[in-house]
Amino acid sequence: MNARNIIEETARDAYGRLISYLTLNWRDIEAVEDALADAFVAALESWPRAGIPDKPESWLLAVAKRKLIDRARRERVSERAMPALIALSEESQQMSSTDTAFPDERLNMLFLCTHPAIDQSIRTPLMLQTVLGMDASRIASAFVVKPSTMGQRLTRAKAKIRTERLTFAMPDAEELPHRLDAVLEAIYAVYGSGWDDLTGVDPRRKGLVHEAIYLGKLLANYLPDEPEVQGLLALMLHCEARREARIDASGSYIPLSEQDTTRWSTLMIMEAERCLRIASQSKRIGRFQLLAAIQSVHAQRARTGVIEWKEIALLYEGLAQLSPTIGVLVGRAAAVAEGYGMERGFALLESMPRDKIVSYQPYWALTAHLHMQLGRHEEARLAYSRAIGLCEDPSIRQFLYQQANQI
Known about the structure:
Pfam families: DUF6596 (PF20239), Sigma70_r2 (PF04542). By secondary structure, the chain is mostly helical. It contains 21 helices and no strands. The chain is globular.
């Protein structure tokens, strides 16, 4: 593998760890991002000529710290700050020459991004960009805002961390649920971004699934008694257990209800069920536990050969009361249609707010499916056309084409 490929791989794998480690000491995210960008440029210039270092991440860390120190000297930071920065630089040099790896500070950084001084609406986007490496345009798309607007919001949030010198401190018992929710949402958003890349062709999403599960496990070890942490981990593991069954040998998408259960990972399913059992002991139900429970019912098909749609519909009903997002409402309609009849499911789809479903692809895919099942072929064609136009994944788009061609 050549130097450029190693640099690209290191950027994907270590960017979040490097940003978090540096930011927790420096408190200026934009300065850290600039310094790390300069370090990658230096690597592009140096590694092809001098060779790839034994520890690429430590090399980048040391260069980024030197860039920060140079910047501090130019800006004449306080005399008290400079010795600390020099000590950090010496520490990174020691890491480069030993087997010591720099600590993964992303969990700390996630909670820094939920500081009460940071506006609640920007906490999850800030985590997605700074800690988990998603670019602003993808974050803007996920939050249905213009990239320029999202960029401005992120810049303001970073400036607040710098100017107010916000520090990390674990929230107390009363504050924890409010700050923990944003952390869980960010980890789940990263998992979802990686999961949506069905064929694994988008280099920007490579490794996101594994990173999200790793952070979920890290959080579960840190907060073992928080049921929603266990619920999120169970949800991701249940979904990940089915990864190999999502596409066939030709790369075509296979819906969950039609997947070959022998291709599911039994070990992951068992681990997910263990997380759910731990969560149930708290007697505090939450969104991620219910989502994981739905996936648990699907997983039972590997043992029973059937899908208990009425049980899934009941879980979705509870989820809709707790968290009536558009995704939950569409999922409930699908489960009700399978468990209680297509007409009842379609009635739930029809009751959804029009402004919420205009650009939501799963809504149109389910609408098309139910129209087809009810014999309304022209309506099904129109809905399939809408779903295909909104679909980003080529495998799912091809599946929708095939369904539409059966009408």
